[in-house]
């Protein structure tokens, strides 16, 4: 049980099932398989200016829930998930991490604006506003949007609808994934069609990212421009 819990806490039940239960997750309705996904070496993008920098944020206040924020570059119509915040810490840890990570990517390019979409409830709206305050104070041009959070059923519907789109994304290859990025990616490939996951934050935020790419006609988004390029 302790060994299983360690895999579960790392969102890596796929490895638990394969290594200790002799039951690869494919038999349990795995939605994503690494053999059908796209990967890239980050060195391939060095010196290339992205057409768009954007991120989807699924906020949380700790207590076992993960803040998940994949960060994406659009380059010539292709989409590269270059980085991810994936952290189950409290807000005093994750808010600076979220704000700082976006700033790091803007620092790489002159006169670029980032877009960050937050999915929030009434209790998590303060998470977005705290991030906005940091970006304003630091003088970074970040456009934010936000939507109400879906219930669990609607989440799984969105994930299933965007499954083909998630497979089109380019993810950092296994050799070059950071520990944090690896945990985020493991959450994606652990997703099953029956939705029985301890955490769905990584795969859900990636579906939100696809909303930003392909749109979602069923929602009206609110937006705010919190800083302008110099």
Short account of what is shown:
With 230 residues, the protein is α/β, with parallel strands linked by helices. Helix content is 39%, strand content 21%.
Please, could you describe this protein's structure?
The protein has 230 residues and is of the alpha/beta class. The protein has an eight-stranded mixed β-sheet. The termini are far apart. The chain is globular and about 45 Å long. It is built from seven helices and eight strands; from the N terminus they run H-H-E-E-E-E-H-E-H-E-H-E-H-H-E. The protein is 39% helix and 21% strand. Strand 3 and strand 4 (78-87) form a beta hairpin.
Q: Tell me the strand percentage band.
A: 15-25%
Which blocks of ≥5 consecutive residues have pLDDT under 50?
A: 217-225
Radius of gyration: 17 Å
Structural class: alpha/beta
* Major beta-sheet overview: 8 strands, mixed
Number of helices: 7
Overall helicity: 25-40%
Kindly report how far apart the N and C termini lie: 55 Å
Placed side by side, the strands forming the largest sheet appear as: 1-7-4-3-2-5-6-8
Outline = globular
The strand count comes to 8
Q: Would you tell me the overall average pLDDT?
A: 85
What is the chain-wise order of helices and strands? Answer: HHEEEEHEHEHEHHE
Please describe the topology of this protein.
Layout: H1 2-9, H2 13-20, E1 38-40, E2 52-57, E3 67-75, E4 78-87, H3 91-107, E5 114-120, H4 125-138, E6 142-148, H5 152-168, E7 170-172, H6 179-189, H7 201-214, E8 222-225
Parallel strand pairs: 1-7, 2-5, 4-7, 5-6
Antiparallel strand pairs: 2-3, 3-4, 6-8
Helix pairs in contact: 3-4, 5-7, 6-7
């Amino acid at each position: 049980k302790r060994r299983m819990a360690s895999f579960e806490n790392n969102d890596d039940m796929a490895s638990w099932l394969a290594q200790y239960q002799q039951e690869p997750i494919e038999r349990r309705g795995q939605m994503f398989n690494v053999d059908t996904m796209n990967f890239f070496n980050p060195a391939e993008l060095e010196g290339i200016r992205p057409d768009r920098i954007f991120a989807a944020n699924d906020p949380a206040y700790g207590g076992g829930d993960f803040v998940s924020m994949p960060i994406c570059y659009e380059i010539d119509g292709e989409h590269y998930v270059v980085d991810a915040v994936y952290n189950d810490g409290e807000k005093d840890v994750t808010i600076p991490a979220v704000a700082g990570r976006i700033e790091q990517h803007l620092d790489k390019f002159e006169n670029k604006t980032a877009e960050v979409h937050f999915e929030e409830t009434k209790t998590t709206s303060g998470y977005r506003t705290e991030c906005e305050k940091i970006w304003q104070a630091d003088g970074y041009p970040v456009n934010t949007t936000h939507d109400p959070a879906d219930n669990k059923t609607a989440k799984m519907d969105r994930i299933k609808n965007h499954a083909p789109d998630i497979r089109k994304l380019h993810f950092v290859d296994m050799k070059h994934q950071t520990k944090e990025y690896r945990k985020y990616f493991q959450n994606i490939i652990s997703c099953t069609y029956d939705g029985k996951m301890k955490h769905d934050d990584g795969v859900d935020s990636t579906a939100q990212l696809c909303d930003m790419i392909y749109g979602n006609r069923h929602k009206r988004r609110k937006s705010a421009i919190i800083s302008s390029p110099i």
